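Hey team,

Filing this mostly as a record. A colleague (T.K.) asked me to run one chain through the structure pipeline before their review meeting, and I want the input and output archived in the tracker in case anyone asks later how it was produced. No errors, nothing strange. Just documentation.

Input sequence:
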Amino acid sequence: MSWFFIVVLIVASLIKILAASAPSAVVERIGKRFQLHPSLSYDVSVKKDGEVLLDEEKQRLLDAFNESNFLEKYYYPPAPEGIPYEIEAINERYYLYPYADRVDVFKYRKKKVYAYSLRSEFMQRQVHTD
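Output structure:
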């Protein structure tokens, strides 16, 4: 009986040590799964008012999205106004509503909606040019 306890204690200790000192690549991969505002690659589809954006415009918008600052998460999202930018990635869709003081983002993933706001000078300037 005491051998069983010693073996269980050693196995539990090894699991604790492995979990506490996981490689950074494993930690980053797990963290990306729960990240609210991820960085997007250029292999996504970007539309505005149903029209696909040109490659140059798409790259500028995605660069601005990736470099934008996260402001806050909405637990009760506001009603969107205007025509959004639609970004379709693998298993996710983003709707970006630029305003003069912020950019509201609605993220749809697996029948769930996450809403948050960003600060991006480039996207906020798009309100005045459209």
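Quick notes for T.K.: The mean pLDDT is 81. Residues 100 and 124 are 5 Å apart (CA to CA).
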